[in-house]
Design a protein that fits this description.
- With 522 residues, the chain is mainly beta.
- The chain is globular.
Amino acid sequence: MQLNKSPSFYFSILLVLFTFTLSGCNSSSSDDTSSDVTVDDSSSDDTSDDSSDDGYDDESDEEDSDVEVTEYSTSNSIGLILNSADAQNGYTLFGGQRFSTTYLIDNCGEMVQSWSSDYSTMSSYLLENGNLLHTGRLQSAENSEFLRAGGDSGRVEIINEQDELQWYYEFNSDTQFMHHDVEYIESTGTVLVMVWKKHSAAEAEAVGYSGNHALWSEQIIELDPTVEDTENAIVWQWDSWDHIVQDEDLTIDNYGVISENPQLIDVNFTGLDVEYEADPIHMNAVTYNEELDQIMINTRNYSEFWIIDHSTSTAEAASHSGGSRGKGGDLLYRWGNPQAYDMGDADDQKLFLQHDAYWIDDDYVEGGQVMIFNNQPNYYGNSDYSSINVVDTQVSDAGDYTLNDDGTYGPDDFTWTYVADDPTDFYATNISGAQRLDNGNTIIDEGTTGTFFEVTYEGDVVWKYVTPVDETGVLTQGDTPGSNFTFRINKYPKDYIGLSYYSLSPSGAIENGSDYSCELFD
């Protein structure tokens, strides 16, 4: 059968061949590249219906050259997954619980600085003077019990910009052990550390504890790194042991009605999921508010965060009076689970085994409020997911907090909440943290998977990265990480003064074998 073909048919064939040739000339020489570039073509006009289009439209060529790249997305298994123009341009700092190097990366996932240590870490912070404040996880403890509760460290270090150990301090004895988090007070150059202190079963019974075993209290100890003598380096301290209440033995001085004493800690309260019976409080974060001169501490097992006065002397901190607020070392404020002071019920609990409670920078969106990584908000439900929440403590300008008429601390609910579109897509049973950024975004550390991602205020994911290091060392692209746990990360804006001590020259991806395209956005 003979087919009659119009001239337009031959023209179409030629046009297809011509287009195929052009696409072949413009193909990437790296066929195995793992990145896709998404372009914003919303300004392009569809001219396919114009019968006079001959493929050589000068106006169309001009439009093609002006397309704007707004996102770099890769198919990587580790390292950079996504970088977009809506992400905060800055540098992300992270270390690991199973590896000893601390890394600083840019938004393209390239390493710009690293610090070495003999110890893996829980928390690391880049200070304004360019030094790295770094917790060190000792491989053994004088009292091995302290390694059973989770979050053990034992040591804090300062490493300078030449990657040299400048200072360290250890709490590692039969009765004391440093753990989890640290905080640097820029105005004084001192360091707050968290310390477990063991009390014998007899000592615990003497203060009304009914558990019939040894008990750890929580200490916040302030150290001066400029003082060489170990004992004199301690310049201030607070101990939860001095602020307990119990309602089981009225012959003991600390007897009281729990609900009438929210400023005190119920020594017999049984929290959720206590991993080690001697550690009922299990603090995992400490942060300082210089304007208020107050300290916030996060207690996982009580599912609360607490605020105490730092303006006290050590003697006042052990009492119930003194300091700017006149309450000594008693709790000024607590929030998350009013059942911990015998108020409310399960419906009133808002926090569940949470981590990383801290004050948002005053100049940021919801500045002065508290952000928390709420690990298990559906603890009593049928599905596991995590959330990021913001709470307004409603503190007065003078630094005071007010009880509601019902005897609980407000507010009744969160200011802001992030959950994934499918909530179960975002879940970390423990560790982890979040940080509000100066553009209103929030960077999140899903610590159990070593995954960092940044979301806009509306909840859109605009940056994502997977830690490419685990207990075996630096991984190769395509590997599945093992224990790449990251307890805490921090992101710093480009103009952060502590970055000025470093060249910040990109040296490539941390992991081996990566090949992807990415550029930094302004």
